[in-house]
Amino acid sequence: MTFFSAGFRVMSAARERRLLGLVVTTLAASSAGAQVADPVEPAEIRVVGKQDPAGLLPDQKVPRAQSAISADFIVKQAPTLNAFQLVTLLPGANVASSDPYGLSTSSSLTLRGLGQDEIGVLMEGAPQNDIGYYYAYPSQFADPENLKRISLAQGSVDIDSPTLGGAGGLLSLALDDPKARPGALVDLSLGSYAARRGFVRIDSGTIGNTGLKAFLSYSNTRADNWRGAGFDTRQHIDAKILNEWGAGNRASLALSYNDANSSSYPSPTLAEWNAQGRDFNFDERYTAGNTNYWRLYRAPFRNLYASAPVHLALTDRLALDTTTYLQFGYGNSPYGTQLTTEGNFLGTEELAQPIALPGAVDGVATVLGNYTGDQMRTGNVSKLTFKTGVHTLTAGLWFDYGTDRVTQSYTSIDAEGQPVDRWGYRAKAIRTADGRLLAYENQRTVTVTKGFFLADRIALTPRLTIDAGFKGVNVLRNGRTYLPGPQDKVRNDSFAALPRAAIHYRLDDRQQLFANITTNFRTPNEFTLYNSYYGGEVVVRGTDALKNEYSVSQEIGYRFIGEQLSASVTGFHYKFRNRQLATVLDQGGAQVNATINAGGQSSYGVDAEIDYRPVAGVSLYLSGEYLRARIDADLPVGADFLPTRGKHAVSSPTVQFGAGGIYDDGRFFGSVASKYIGRQYASFMNDERIKGYATLDLSVGMHLADWLDGKRTDLRVNAINVTDPHVLAGVQSVSTNAQDTIGRNGTVIAGSPPAYYVGSGAAVMATISRAF
Known about the structure:
Blueprint: H1 13-19, E1 67-70, H2 71-74, H3 83-86, E2 93-97, E3 107-111, E4 119-123, E5 126-127, E6 147-153, E7 169-175, E8 183-191, E9 195-203, E10 213-224, E11 231-245, E12 249-263, H4 270-276, E13 298-313, E14 318-332, E15 335-340, E16 345-346, E17 349-350, E18 364-388, E19 391-412, E20 441-459, E21 464-481, E22 489-506, E23 511-522, E24 532-534, E25 537-540, E26 549-561, E27 565-577, E28 580-587, E29 590-597, E30 601-612, E31 618-631, E32 635-637, E33 640-642, E34 655-664, E35 668-677, E36 680-681, E37 689-690, E38 693-703, E39 713-720, E40 728-733, E41 741-742, E42 748-749, E43 755-758, E44 763-771
Parallel strand pairs: 4-7
Antiparallel strand pairs: 1-6, 2-3, 4-5, 6-7, 8-9, 8-44, 9-10, 10-11, 11-12, 12-13, 13-14, 14-18, 15-18, 16-17, 18-19, 19-20, 20-21, 21-22, 22-23, 23-26, 24-25, 26-27, 27-30, 28-29, 30-31, 31-34, 32-33, 34-35, 35-38, 36-37, 38-39, 39-44, 40-43, 41-42
């Protein structure tokens, strides 16, 4: 994803230094969730979206590490990159992407070794994570032309964030505001693998005397798979309406709708990768009985996100902030499989009568296996902030209600291998002889979250501030399975107390020290509550006895913000109980998100970043992380224990390094972004790992306004992953042990191979942008 570059002239060196750069520093919100007001925008249409309000490494008086990417960096990147790919330069961000354009769902993000199910994601203050499994899907987020900032807190979430978990940190997306004057923006892009993209945005300007202003945008993207057969499509709509009045009062409504049909690239084991490399793909052509045909693995999804944040200055000392949000989503993660007309089961019930299977030969038919999710989520988070003397008091409530209907059913395919219904709608799925839905999994879960939080920021001196806060969260899951068997309803109710504290000291106008201690928790995902059946038997027994993950983290940091040089360094430490590790399990052919209780884990390390602006229009950036993450105990497997104490945590590279830079002199511009990720273990026993690797992205462009009619027109070319390394980029499915292992009690514990993301290939994309 990307913006179109502005092309404004530099008015002075100081001004350009404020506008250019990666803007990667501590933009952290405080534990009380304080926000920094945006400046008044200029009246003219801003082609790239509003620049980061405080310029390079803004001097925030906040006690937590957080990095950010400004619009001026985003505008120079390829216009299809998703939010995960855009933050890859930041400290601790380990991004594994199987697709150079960011369209596929086969990707992951870890922060300080913690997976994306541990990372809260907000857009306009509304949660974007899946309510059942905690994942967030970056290809569904807003188009980059509509983003003004992406911020990444590597350590914890704000106390008022409406997210569950968050030990891994918080990714926040802020939408650009509608413009004060009417205008339009058009982006057109062409690239490798027959990629094409169009984007158009219309700004209404201020509507009459109402004070309201709005924008509406639409994008359409299509690209062939860079590896194997198939293609991806994406249509996206963003909209926002805003009103501001009085002394800081503000109310807005933001909408984001996504309609995509994405490829899920196959993930090889290490043996398959060594044997086939990038040729490990789905089949291009269909033959009778083939379950590996590419059309059986395309995932259609439709999602709608809505957020309505409001800020009211009730008095000079009292303010109300409230955000109401709503989500709808439906999609299918299909796969190819075979069914027989006889010998089938529904849960534990054996079907006495054969089922009708179109195209069956000798009682066997190739079908589309559907793994569908139908979600709805709504909620509200509200807080009052009161200033009295040296205290800034915050009190708030959070309520969230979500439903998730998961069905694993089957759909017929025609003689050419084309599914009769790619969406997996239950009305069109294969049924039993008596009309019931033939399903491997069929359940509905309701999740109700209630929370409250209290915080106090105490300004002991003009230089010294102390924050203290407490958050209480209750999560209730009620569910029902519709399969015959010993299980009917499920229920899990848990509460967590989450205290926190922080201190911030300003040494002088440029130097700051901070430290904090934060607690986080996460309930097991909903999948763990339900039985899994195969052949009429319970093969995985659901339970409500799994313990919540609980973690305590500490940070201590230093930051320097100067006119030409800005830097920060943060030391961190984590201690986990009942570490919940996300993985992907094969359930009846479907790739299902699941959780492994990895017991205790201890991690510590250092994040560092520096931004140097030697002359106007040039910004150079370096980042790095050292991470030591270890498993604290042996892992129970059956009646024995794997000797995992002291082993490296999975998906936790010891070292990472990032380097980037941008240049913009008002006529020509460009950027470079490179990241090195160290080796990563894929099993708890550390008996399988992947090598370290590096990526490199480049861009060059021209501002054409002065050569044309004076209206902002930009041309740029992006080269993605130009070195094209043939590597495994990350771990998709972890394993307890890849090889057979003798447990502590002498039992031979059978190994199972992990699966991996194949690193994306190289691509080139050209974009022309025009403002009207």
